[in-house]
Design a protein that fits this description.
This protein is 71% helix and 0% strand. The chain contains 4 helices and no strands. α1 packs across α4 and α2 crosses α4. The chain starts with a helix and ends with a helix.
């Protein structure tokens, strides 16, 4: 999905390099998700089942809102 790619590459370009190791791990965990699953989390239609996924979603959403 193009929108997901834009959100993820936006973070990758603007925030990944300065991120903590934990934040980088959370981002990598998001990359393992299917597009429909990731979209459900980012659109807040689904609640992440793991802490690392929740952290990654929070990172992306905070950066997008900024």
């Amino acid at each position: 999905m193009k929108e997901l790619d834009q959100l993820l590459t936006g973070y990758l370009d603007a925030g990944y390099e300065a991120a903590t190791d934990d934040d980088k791990a959370a981002f990598h965990a998001l990359l393992e998700l299917s597009d429909p699953e990731l979209a459900g989390y980012l659109l807040q239609r689904q609640e992440p089942g793991s802490e690392i996924i929740a952290r990654g979603i929070d990172i992306i959403l905070r950066r997008h809102r900024a």
